[in-house]
Task: structure prediction
Amino acid sequence: MSTAELHTLTGAYALHALEADERAEFERHLEVCPACAQEVAELAATTTRLGLAVAVTPPAELKARVLRRIATERQEPPKVTPESRGAGGGAGAARGRALSRFALAACLAAAAGFGGIAVWQHQEAQEAGERASASQQRAEALAAVLAAPDAKIRTGGLTDGATGTVVVSRAQDKAAFIASGMPKPPGGKVYQLWFNDDGTMRDAGLMDPSATSGSVLMAGSVGAASGMGITVEPAGGSPQPTSDPVALMNFPT
Result:
C-alpha cells in the first residue's frame, strides 16, 4: 500500500474498520507520520465525545423498580377459544402471565445490554485515542532525534546485503536506528536492539518483525554506550542476548 493511500485510512482506523494486515501496516505508518497520528487522535477524541453524548447510565434503582412492576402489573388475559376453557384454562392463563413477565424481563436485559455496548464503545474509542497518542509521541521523539542539531550519523553493512544507520543525539541522550533491506526474522523470532555499554548489552527495544525497512527510536537513554548490537530473539524479546549478534555498530563520535 502506498504512502498516499495510507494517509486516507485515519478515519477507518479510528473506527476499527481495517483488516488485521491493513491495521498493522497503518500502525507502522503512524510511527513515522505525525500528521496522521494527530488526525487519528482527534478522530478518536471526537468518537468518544459522540459516544458519551448518546450513552445514558441507568440509575441504580432501575432494575429493582422494573422488577417490582413486573410483579404487580396486571397483564391482559390470554385469548382462548371456548373449547380450551375449563380445567385447562387456569394453566393457560398462568402460562400467559409467565410469558408476559418473561417479555418484560427480556426488555430489561436488552436495555442493560445497550448500556453495556455504550460503555464498551467508549472504552474502545478511549483505547484507540491512547494508542494514537502513544504513536504520535514516538513519532515526535524519533523526528526530534533525526533533526537534532548535534545528531551524528554512522551507516554500516548488516546481514544479507542489508544496511543500517544509527543516529545519536547526545544532547537528547537518545538514538535512532534506520534499517534498509533486512531479511525477515524466522517465525516466532524478532530482531532486538541493544546498547553496548563497554561490552555489556542493554535492552534498547524490538524491531517490527514484519518490516524489512524502517526507523525505530531505540528505547532508553544512550548513557555511556559506545555502540549498539542486533540479535535474533524469541518473540517478545529477552532480558539478555541469547544469540550471536547479527550486527555490531559503534556510535559516531
Observations:
- The radius of gyration is 30 Å.
